[in-house]
Automatic annotation (TrEMBL):
Record-given protein name: nicotinamidase
Protein species of origin: Hymenobacter polaris
This protein's record includes keyword Hydrolase: yes
EC category: hydrolase
EC number, UniProt record: 3.5.1.19
Record-linked Pfam families: Isochorismatase
Annotated GO biological process: pyridine nucleotide biosynthetic process
Highest classification ranks of the organism: Bacteria, Pseudomonadati, Bacteroidota, Cytophagia, Cytophagales
Amino acid sequence: MNALLLIDVQLDFMPGGALAVPGGDAIVAGLNELQSHYDLVVATQDWHPLGHRSFASSHPGQAVFSEIEWQGLPQRLWPDHCVQGSPGAALHPGLDLNRVEAIFRKGTDPDLDSYSAFFDNGHRRATGLGAYLRARGITQVAVAGLALDYCVYFSAKDALQEGFSVEVLTELTRGIAPATIAAARQDLLARGAVLR
């Protein structure tokens, strides 16, 4: 049994959004077309409380995109984005949700970021996605969405660690920066993911 994970297809990651991923909106139609090829479709939603510690605005004097140490982990500081209940946190209105059986929200802990669909960045708390997939007999996971070099990458990496075979649908992802995209691709291949 296979599952398609639609990672963070949200307005704040689209062109014009608070943390826009270049070309993010170009993948929506392809994600819709692909859903019928999978036994299960699940989506994620970045869902931060106001004042989340991953926001540069929560660290006076720190610049957006700088990196600090927070809770013993490296933390990239982002513009405020995907704030719970805000228009930017909404899934793209063009994304077909008819086959989406569950939406897992992440980044809800105000003190700890969560790039992965499976765990927070410190692997301290699971989202429940791994158990959800196993309970439905899923053994193969395809990952698509935004952004390739962050949430797609960490979700795929954790899916491998959770024992799923993983395929990253690179034509249905977009990334933020060429260097981090290349590093993510190389690491996923080395860990046994299939990139197509």
